[in-house]
């Protein structure tokens, strides 16, 4: 009895799909042309099990870009300092609106969070705020509330990173 093969050689133009030990049930044999060969990935060097990587917690280039756009690195630094000081208030506004089930207030709060986080380079928090925005647009307040816990964690991490990596306190 030949072993099953997904790529039969020239001499054997069939593929055995099943084998039984009982003589009442014969093997099932299909022509080789009817069995699809495995298809390779478009990029053979890519690991198909690799998960997409998360953006950096804070991208330092964002504050540099903001400073260049404003023609003042000091103003960009001040914006980042204000962002960190306002984090608790911004989070509480979002949490309160979500817990009250107020879609309009929730949307205002999450858009403010997303935009300001992008401006200071808080990429993971901005991405998470985008996911929360998507849940709100879909009317899924339950999922939005689940995401709120992650927003709190990423927000605290983002503020810590900004404060300690970019020396935001007044000198």
Kindly state the mean pLDDT as a whole number?
Answer: 78
The amount of beta strand, in percent, is 5-15%
**Largest β-sheet summary:** 2 strands, antiparallel
Order of helices and strands: EEHHHHH
Number of helices: 5
Helical content class: 55-70%
> What's the quaternary structure here?
single chain
Instruction: Give the termini separation.
Output: 83 Å
Overall geometry: elongated
Residue windows where pLDDT falls under 50 for at least 5 positions: 1-23, 27-43
User: Helix/strand/pairing class, anyone?
Assistant: mainly alpha
Widest β-sheet, arrangement of strands: 1-2
For the secondary structure, the number of strands is: 2
CA radius of gyration = 28 Å
Keywords, separated by commas or semicolons:
171 residues; mainly alpha; two-stranded antiparallel ribbon
Task: Explain what the structure shows.
The protein is mainly alpha-helical and about 170 residues long. The protein is built from 5 helices and 2 strands. It has helices spanning about 60-70, 75-100, 105-120, 125-135, 140-165, and strands at about 15-20, 30. Strands 1-2 form a two-stranded antiparallel ribbon. Helix 4 (about 125-135) runs antiparallel to helix 5. It starts with 13 loop residues before the first strand and ends in a 6-residue tail after the last helix.
């Amino acid at each position: 009895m030949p072993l099953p093969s997904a790529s039969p050689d020239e001499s054997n133009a069939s593929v055995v799909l099943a084998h039984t030990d009982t003589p009442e049930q014969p093997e099932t044999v299909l022509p080789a042309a009817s069995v699809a060969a495995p298809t390779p990935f478009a990029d053979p060097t890519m690991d198909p099990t690799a998960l997409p990587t998360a953006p950096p917690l804070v991208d330092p280039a964002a504050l540099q870009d903001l400073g260049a756009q404003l023609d003042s690195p000091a103003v960009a630094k001040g914006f980042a300092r204000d962002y960190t000081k306002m984090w608790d208030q911004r989070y509480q506004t979002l949490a309160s609106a979500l817990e009250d089930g107020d879609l309009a207030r929730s949307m205002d709060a999450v858009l403010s969070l997303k935009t300001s986080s992008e401006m200071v380079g808080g990429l993971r928090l901005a991405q998470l705020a985008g996911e929360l925005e998507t849940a709100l647009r879909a009317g899924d307040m339950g999922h939005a509330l689940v995401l709120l816990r992650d927003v709190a964690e990423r927000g605290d991490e983002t503020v810590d990173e900004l404060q300690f990596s970019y020396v935001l306190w007044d000198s």
